[in-house]
Amino acid sequence: MSNNQSIQEIALEFIEKKNETTFTRLINRLRPGLYSFTHKILKDRILCEDVITETFISIWSKVDQYDHRYNFSTWAYAIAKNNCWGVLKEKKKTVSIDKVPFKSLHSKNFMYVNRITTTDIECLAPSGDELIQKLYDVSINAIYELKEPYKTVMIEREINKKQLDAIADDLGWNLSTVKTRLRKAKVDIADKVKLKHSHLVESYLYPEDE
Q: Strand ranges (DSSP E) for the chain?
């Protein structure tokens, strides 16, 4: 058995055999990334371990629900994210969004989408800032409405928070292809959000108290 197998290859082997050996190998490969991902949201080692354990239980029990058209790690990270939401709701945590510098963009609407999709979101639970939550929700929905391959690359980058070279490796693309498809996807998202939710965009860009 090659030690150079990708997560996707190990996952497909697990789906085929569904035995403890392949599941252990899959867990060992997924755990470091899942820990980093969940820790950005929960900021608590013990909670992260609980969420990861729950995530692996879900993967074992619900693997038949995995859609083979998409990357297995995308599905696994989505389960972990939902488990984090559950923990945060129970803890009654609030959203905390860090302001980060971003490069000059071509339009105010693209600026808005860039803020939403590249800001380091520490936790994704409901908060008192209803506008920010709604904008985030519609942006995430817009990602899932994208056509392939743009949907997958945006999920990997903006939801799973993967590095560009890791995305290229996992999807079998070169780095320039990843960058090009991300740029196009962000423009498409900006157009979708502006068209469907112009009132939210205007409220965000031009708040009344400014």
A: none
pLDDT of residue 121: 34
Which phi and psi angles does 97 have, rounded to 5°? -115, 120
Distances (CA, A) of 136 to 126, 131, 171, 193: 11, 9, 26, 10
Residues 15-55: pLDDT tens digits? 999 898 999 999 999 999 999 999 988 988 989 999 999 99
Distances (CA, A) of 155 to 9, 23, 71: 19, 24, 10
What does the domain layout of the chain look like in residue ranges? Answer: 1-93, 95-210
Q: Which fold has domain 95-210?
A: Arc Repressor Mutant, subunit A (1.10.10)
Residue 123 has pLDDT above 70, yes or no: no
CATH number of 1-93: 1.10.1740.10
